[in-house]
Amino acid sequence: MALIDLMGRRWILRILWELRGQPLTFRALQEACGRLSPSVLNGRLGELRAAALVDAGDDGYALTALGRELLTQFSSLTVWAEKWAKALR
Predict the structure, then answer these.
(1) CA–CA distance from 28 to each of 11, 36, 44, 46, 71 (Å)?
(2) 20 to 30 A from 49, CA-CA: which of 7, 61, 81, 87?
(3) What does the pLDDT average to over 4-14?
(4) DSSP letter for each residue of 39-52
(5) Quick one: 32 exposed, middle or buried, by C-beta within 10 A (0-12, 13-18, 19+)?
(6) Residue 54: what are its φ and ψ, rounded to 5°?
């Protein structure tokens, strides 16, 4: 339930998604997320760091090994969601 609660927080999934390819500085991550305020981004990054899904390094913020593994788990959910969308049409 803790993971579902964390993933349900606004902007968390977007931040994880934007970090999928490469580390991003705070400013680059903020720009990638569009309207995200600095205070909200800072708070969400703190939550993700506490959960060991994101870490900060010399190149900016990046997914940890656990964060990358979590994103791979979403691939089966994406497949299911596509089937569900077709069924709803």
Answers:
(1) 15, 11, 15, 17, 20
(2) 81
(3) 95
(4) HHHHHHHHHHHHTT
(5) middle
(6) -135, 145
Query: pLDDT digits over 24-79, tens only?
Result: 999 999 999 998 999 999 999 999 999 999 999 999 999 999 999 999 998 888 89
Measure CA 65 to chain center: 13
The pair of structure tokens assigned to 89 is 């049409």
Whole-angstrom distance, CA of residue 55 vs CA of residue 65: 10
Task: Please give the pLDDT value at position 41.
Answer: 98
Predicted confidence at residue 58, as pLDDT, reads: 95
Q: Which residue has the tokens 């997320």?
A: 33
Structure tokens, 64: 């940890």
Report residue 80 as tokens.
């299911």
